[in-house]
Amino acid sequence: MTFETSGMDKILLRNVALSGYRKPTPVQRHAIPTVMAGRDLMSCAQTGSGKTAAFVLPVLHQMLQMGGPAPAPSTGSTSGLSSRFRCSYPTYLILAPTRELASQIFSECRKFCYGTGIRAAVIYGGSENTREQLRAVENQVDIVVATPGRLLDFIERGRILLANVRFLTLDEADRMLDMGFEPQIRQIVEACDMPVIGERQTLMFSATFPREIQRLASDFLHDYIFLAVGRVGSTTDFIVQRIEFCEDHLKREMLLDLLNSIPGLTLVFVDTKRAADALEDFLLRHGYAASSIHGDRSQREREDALAAFRSGQTPILVATDVAARGLDIPNVAHVVNYELPSTIDDYVHRIGRTGRAGNQGIATSFANEKNRGIVRDLIELLQEAGQEVPSWLYTMCQGPAMRSGGSGRPGRGGRFGGRDMRRESGAPRRGQFGGAASATAATRDEPWGGGNWRASGGSAW
């Protein structure tokens, strides 16, 4: 399948071309026709594989084919917050775990919606932007991209009603469960007047799908297609992974050596907010243009830091895991795990910020005896990806802690969940797609035209 032969609306094809997409990635090639056919979908794909376009484009096509959103249900009242003119009845709801990812998805939606008459809005946590987001949904919007907590807040305020939702996407579903959002997600899907299974089309996308996520899929999806692109939970072939033994007191010196030897945008991961602030201050004092993002930063500060990083104004960004999943920062040349995460899942998502869209990238990780708990999984991942495994890492794996069971949790196969659970349970399935993982599409963050997204010249609703 190519974009031109996909059967998508001509306006969408034009917007795809303006976005710089030349040919679909594997996940797009399989997911787009599946979603356009109206099937529910659970997709496992590597980070950087173009998942956003894979779910936004085919849903937009179906929305255009519908001729417009359904009329708002009668509320029995013409006053108050439940009025049509004070709230929105979206046709398409997209849930994401973080405000950064929600903003990124919204940016892609705006580009693909250009000239279609379809309006989108994004809502996420942060007291500094509540009023602006309330104004955005006062007049009907057709697509809402949201984090679960802020969406529930707007539902409780009567500003968003879900009775008209015909399409639902959960992006980075594993991350949402990791962050404890399952109760909020279930409340949104099961207790807020959203059409039930079979009356809406539901899509779940993530880089990993452990058993917990597949159980969630069985509750939310109807007779779904399971799409696994590449080896689930692995890394792309475009990333060169390096593991360096480094004691804690030598990490700053080694980081400076890396920054001096590898040019380009560098993303440095640490575990805590305090460590992020301290490392940013150290780099600034040594003359390096650096910034940091973490949970204590305001939304404006985080957006400004990301914008400066993307533009190269501050080519070094120190981050906690708030930026690890879902964020699409183009042209990151180097990811440094200054502090290794405790799980291989987080390692995969961190280094997936480089080597995106077919570009080459380098991921360097500092490791020492404190990181024994991840060593066995790390060796397995490096071997699967054909990467060099240092001899000292094998030695560390043979230590007493590792022989006794290491971290005490299941191995990677059980956590990443690369198999469709319905095969084991004997439940019937109607189809399954698979493919090799690579990413070839180029993306840009800038929408075109600006102004009113119900622009003329398209299929205005």
Automatic annotation (TrEMBL):
Keywords, ordered alphabetically: ATP-binding, Helicase, Hydrolase, Nucleotide-binding, RNA-binding
Listed Basic and acidic residues bias regions: 417-427
Catalysis performed (reactions): ATP + H2O = ADP + phosphate + H(+)
InterPro entries on file: DEAD/DEAH_box_helicase_dom, Ded1/Dbp1_DEADc, Helicase_ATP-bd, Helicase_C-like, P-loop_NTPase, RNA_helicase_DEAD_Q_motif
Region (Disordered), start-end ranges: 402-461
GO MF terms, alphabetically ordered: ATP binding; hydrolase activity; RNA binding; RNA helicase activity
Sequence ranges assigned to domain Helicase C-terminal in this UniProt record: 254-397
Alphabetized PANTHER family for the sequence: ATP-DEPENDENT RNA HELICASE DBP3 (PTHR47958)
Species this chain originates from: Cyanidiococcus yangmingshanensis
EC number of this enzyme: 3.6.4.13
Ranges where the Helicase ATP-binding domain occurs: 32-227
Keyword Hydrolase listed: yes
Protein name: RNA helicase
Class of enzymatic activity (EC top level): hydrolase
Motif Q motif, residue range(s) on this chain: 1-29
Keyword Membrane on entry: no
Domain DEAD-box RNA helicase Q: from-to ranges: 1-29
Pfam families (UniProt xref): DEAD, Helicase_C
Phylogenetic classification of the source organism: Eukaryota, Rhodophyta, Bangiophyceae, Cyanidiales, Cyanidiaceae
